[in-house]
Amino acid sequence: MASASRAQFSSRFGFILAAAGSAVGLGNIWGFPTQAANNGGGVFIVVYTLMVIGLAYPLLVAELTIGRYGQANPVQSLRSILPSGSRWLGTLLALVGLTAASCILSFYAILAGWLVGYFLSPILEAIGLTGVSQWLETFSIGRNLFLMLLFMWATIHVVKSGVAEGIERWSTRLMPILVLLFVVLIGYIFTQDGAVDGLKLFLIPDFSQIHPALIHSAMGQAFFSLSLGVCTMMVYGSYLKKDANLPRTAAEVALIDTAIAFIAGLLILPAMFVAQNHGVTIYNDDGQLASSGTLVFDVLPAMFDTMGAPGYLVASIFFALMVIAALTSSISLLEVPVAAAVEELSQPRNYAAWTIGGMISALSAVIIFYFDPLFDWVIVASTEYAQPILGLIFALLVGWIWHRDQVLAELQKGNPAIAAGWFWKIWPVYVRVVCPLLMLYVFFA
């Protein structure tokens, strides 16, 4: 167990914003709206919400509980819930989780760097630096390296400052700004021709479009959007005070994450139809998004270009929003290996943040130099394989290996009456049986 002097979030509100910031990322603002646009709009929201409740939320409680019980980094936390003869397995699982988080950050930093470039580009264009503006939007090794390093510097700067002074302070600043920028942009987009068509697609469900592929997409989106399976929520849970009500806290994090995804849909789908009204191709002949993977880099900038002078401001605000979302996720990803280095190797936090951040930046640089063979491979290996497999194993550990009385005792510290409530009657069996079966379906489908 960690010492009593270990860093903690100073308030439950700070934790909720930090954990929600970890969950809120490009998956919400980019992935969720494009998934909705490709899968029937409103009906996708209904299925996605059911998957958050039925899959993501129970697993989020499990990871937070492991972390707070251990009051330490994932290596110690996972070891603490295993029998003495098999604690090596906890070390192995934690190392795989640390590696997966680092790999996700390595490609995430490249994507986020592009967003930084698109944020700066319209500002530079407006003041006459057209050449620099075009360079920031043009794919090249030099541009990719520069922007990746700029984003990683910001991530390291936050993480090196610690839990309360770094992660919590910046999360409580950035998350309200994120919501404010959303409100401003939604208010603007709703004044444009074509926005109502996108709003109708997003809000009116067509249940005739429910099919296995839609259910699979919603399930995967719900799982990945809450940062499950790579120890980030385990680390954040370890910084929680013992009097926090874990099921309620997890519900609040899941609610904020889902709300941000919904708000992103209110922005992106109407914006797509506004772009279509300006002559930008959105859907191809078979009804699928023409550029779902590059939506924010192709379709939306094309729309901003048609707006004239106001387009520069709108583009900068939109990409500022994207950068903030990416940063709140990247700091949680870097915190996973940094927390382990600080506690397992007794490294000073400042040194650990710069050293590990530098190593991940080096991995990002390798991906940039060998982009075609490595970029997609790292994404698939870390998010489609490592993340769901680890999430499945964590569910099995909590459901089958960790002693039931210890789990209950940990949950009772924040809610003494929990044993008599409906949550404890359902959740242990649900995590033991239902969650693994659902995750196996997601993985093998």
UniProtKB/TrEMBL annotation:
Membrane topology: Multi-pass membrane protein
Classification via InterPro entries: Na/ntran_symport (IPR000175), SNS_sf (IPR037272), YocR/YhdH-like (IPR047218)
SUPFAM superfamilies associated with the record: SNF-like
Keywords in alphabetical order: Membrane, Transmembrane, Transmembrane helix, Transport
Regions that span the bilayer: 12-31, 43-67, 88-121, 141-159, 171-190, 210-237, 249-275, 311-331, 351-371, 383-402, 422-444
Annotated Pfam families: SNF
Localization of this protein: Membrane
Superkingdom of origin: Bacteria
GO CC, any one term: membrane
PANTHER family assigned to the protein according to its UniProt record, in alphabetical order: TRANSPORTER
Annotated protein name in UniProt: Transporter
Organism: Photobacterium ganghwense
